[in-house]
Amino acid sequence: MQWHLDAMKADEMWQTSTGKGVVVAVIDTGVDPANPDLVGQVLKGRNLESDVAGDEHTDYDGHGTSMAGLIAGTGRSNGGNGAFGLAPGAKILPIRMPESGVGATQAEGEAKFNRIAPVAIRYAVERGAKVINISLGVQAGSQALTDAVKYALDNGSLVFAAAGNSGDGANLLEYPVGTPGVVGVGAIGHDAKKTDESQYGPQIDFTAPGIDMVHPCKGGTQLCKTSGTSDATAIASASAALIWAEHPDWTNNQVLRVMLNTVGKPKSGAKRDDYVGYGAVRPRIALKTPGDPGPPDVYPLPDLAAAERNSPSASPKPSKTTGDSENPDKPAAAAPVSDGKSSNTGLWTGLGIGALALIGAVTAGLAIRSRRRKSAAAPLAYPYQQRTQSSYEGPPR
Questions:
Q1: Residue 183 belongs to what H/E stretch?
Q2: 6: left (phi over 0), alpha (psi -120 to 50) or beta
Q3: What is the SS3 assignment for 9?
Q4: pLDDT of residue 135
Q5: Which of 54, 241, 280, 318 might form a disulfide with 264, Cβ 3.0–4.6 angstroms?
């Protein structure tokens, strides 16, 4: 049912680590703690959406619950045939971001995101989240966002963000994935190749499975199948949780360095490229043969130091969108002009692809997709998760 768990040999990993003791913040649309696969997994968090009824435990879209499920689902639904997260022992700290911002201009939406996302990141750190998952994005960053990410790193956390899903279209750089110090995640499919929609560029550090991902969700049998860099980011975040739980004395830099040293390298033979970054996360290898975690106080990726070296204001990562980027100081090429084919068609949508495949409730998924397409001609902030029209038939009986 969950092909990525088989491919990553989750059963073998869980004999060593389930992520127990690690808190993963999900900065998203809220997380439903009553979902059968998430009962007992969701902590009290923070609600930053004042215009929609409910709190951080009220998921106004379903996207946040999906991300939480991919990270820490227990598989208890449907008589034990539910969906597991990669780190079922981890706990979820839900932080609900404002809804899409229907009626707002792109500039207003981006400003709102850059005003509220830093608050969410800082709150996650203060509440003890070691891993911060952000499967959302906008097309503009800010100094406040950069400062919040630096605050997270300085206080021992890691921030993972989705690349976006317009890789087969405009491929415009998103934030916070383009923010220095953020671990950028793209999506790969069953063949371990980058998915068509997964965005590319120097902002990509890792890839993870992000197609046909079965996870807990709202309605029907409460299982969905989706694709996108949202899903891939949740898998990368869960991978960090698995490693951290096994090595609780490691710093964020050491956890990230071991992830970096144990990736499945790009098939091109390069150290990294702009399509899969340094390669696919392999937490099983990191748990089995982690190697030397290295110095505890040195950030292992080059973008943070490069940004600080090149600009006193720690400017965002370069926006070059083609070719290889082993050298983070390469001149940046201009981002391509939108050709109208971008999959970024919502406002504050998450980074996924297509339409929600809600078991027994495909109509609801199509309604969500339709609402996002009508929200604005230009995206503001959106979940990176494409939702497929075909319904998922459920677990084997």
A1: strand 183-188
A2: alpha
A3: coil
A4: 98
A5: 280
User: What is the rounded (10 degree) CA torsion for 192, 195, 199, 201?
Assistant: 40
List the Cα angle 90/138/238 in 5-degree steps. 15
DSSP per-residue codes, 309-374: HH-TT-PPPP---SS--SSTTSPPPPPPPP-S--S--SSSEEE-EEEEEETT-HHHHHHHHHHHHH
- Residue 138 near residue 113 (C-beta atoms within 8 A): yes
Query: What distances in angstroms separate CA 98 from CA 8, 69, 246, 270, 344, one per listed residue?
Result: 34, 21, 35, 40, 18
pLDDT at 12: 98
Using DSSP, state whether 385 is helix, strand or coil: coil
Q: Which two tokens stand for residue 383?
A: 């979940």
Distance, in Å, from the CA atom of 350 to the CA atom of 332, rounded to the nearest integer, reads 26
Q: Give the CATH superfamily of 3-387.
A: Peptidase S8/S53 domain (3.40.50.200)
Question: Which residues are within 8 A (CB) of 167 and not within 5 positions of it... i.e. 6 or more apart?
Answer: 186, 194, 195, 196, 197, 198, 199, 200
Q: Catalytic site residues?
A: 28, 63, 230
Of 243, 120, 235, 118, residue with least CA distance to 183: 235
Distance CA 326, CA 207 (A): 16
**Domain coordinates in residue numbering, the chain:** 3-387
> SS3 of 85, please?
coil
Q: What span, in angstroms and rounded, lies between the C-alpha atoms of 108 and 48? A: 17
